């Protein structure tokens, strides 16, 4: 497993590296102290996950995440930040992060985040999920389909039939969670963009939701894991047709 840590504090990167090696002894770690260094690594390396701080010398706040995802839309990003505000967490979800770990969290939260993302799931702080769903107006929204009320600690992979989805809808959901815009999903699935947009609309209706961000929060809340292959190839994101700069729910 290859992981990139982007943080401007040497001590924090070293501590995070120790925790990651406890979780995965054979892990290969790359380090960057600036956003530009992180983007350079991301554009040239096969990576499983990026851990990204939001407060960097050359990239502040959610703009750092936006720039990294613009460069590598298919690359899973877990934000690790001292900012614990629900507003920032919500904005990072909108910008297609697959996880958010406050720096005040215990080591177990880091393990849970990397386990969830490697399995094609989403990790958000438990304390923020209820507030996010309440702010979005989805705290009472039912989740359709059999076998879908999975607890947050569930370790089993979900399936299309288990979630009441068609195979194509399930594949679309997996790429959507990964952070790809609809045109990039269409490219990978060999479909027209309008077809993928229809699948996304079906997914939102199926789960009784309105927006992609609500869908991501619901998946984190239920602990749903989609089994997405974790390694991403920068060559795919460099393709002009990958539409990395376009964002659409």
TrEMBL record:
UniProt biased composition (Polar residues): 147-161
Domain HTH luxR-type: 158-223
One BP term from GO: regulation of DNA-templated transcription
Molecular function via GO: DNA binding
Domain Response regulatory: 2-118
InterPro entries: CheY-like_superfamily (IPR011006), EvgA-like (IPR051015), NreC/VraR/RcsB-like_REC (IPR058245), Sig_transdc_resp-reg_C-effctor (IPR016032), Sig_transdc_resp-reg_receiver (IPR001789), Tscrpt_reg_LuxR_C (IPR000792)
Gene3D superfamilies (UniProt xref): 3.40.50.2300
Keywords: DNA-binding, Phosphoprotein
Pfam families the UniProt entry points to: GerE (PF00196), Response_reg (PF00072)
Residues modified to 4-aspartylphosphate: 53
UniProt entry tagged with the keyword Lipid biosynthesis: no
Residues covered by region (Disordered): 137-163, 229-249
Residue intervals passing through the bilayer: none
Domain of life where this protein originates: Bacteria
Protein's UniProt name: Transcriptional activator protein ExaE
């Amino acid at each position: 497993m290859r992981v990139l840590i982007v943080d401007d504090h040497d001590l924090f990167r070293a501590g995070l590296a120790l925790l990651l090696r406890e979780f995965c002894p054979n892990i290969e770690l790359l380090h960057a102290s600036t956003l530009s260094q992180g983007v350079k690594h991301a554009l040239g390396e096969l990576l499983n996950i990026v851990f990204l701080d939001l407060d960097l010398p050359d990239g502040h706040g959610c703009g750092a995440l936006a720039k990294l995802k613009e460069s590598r839309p298919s690359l899973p990003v877990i934000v690790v930040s001292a900012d614990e505000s629900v507003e920032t967490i919500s904005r990072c979800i909108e910008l297609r992060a697959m996880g958010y770990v406050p720096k005040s969290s215990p080591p177990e939260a880091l393990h849970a985040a990397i386990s969830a993302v490697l399995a094609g799931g989403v990790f958000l702080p438990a304390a923020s999920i209820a507030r996010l769903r309440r702010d979005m107006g989805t705290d009472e929204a039912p989740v359709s389909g059999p076998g879908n009320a999975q607890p947050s600690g569930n370790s089993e992979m979900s399936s299309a039939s288990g979630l009441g989805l068609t195979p194509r809808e399930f594949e679309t959901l997996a790429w959507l969670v990964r952070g790809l815009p609809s045109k990039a999903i269409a490219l990978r699935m060999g479909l027209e963009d309008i077809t993928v947009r229809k699948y996304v609309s079906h997914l939102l209706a199926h789960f009784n939701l309105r927006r992609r961000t609500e869908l991501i929060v619901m998946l984190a809340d239920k602990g749903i894991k989609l089994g997405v292959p974790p390694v991403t190839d920068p060559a795919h994101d460099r393709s002009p047709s990958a539409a990395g700069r376009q964002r659409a729910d």
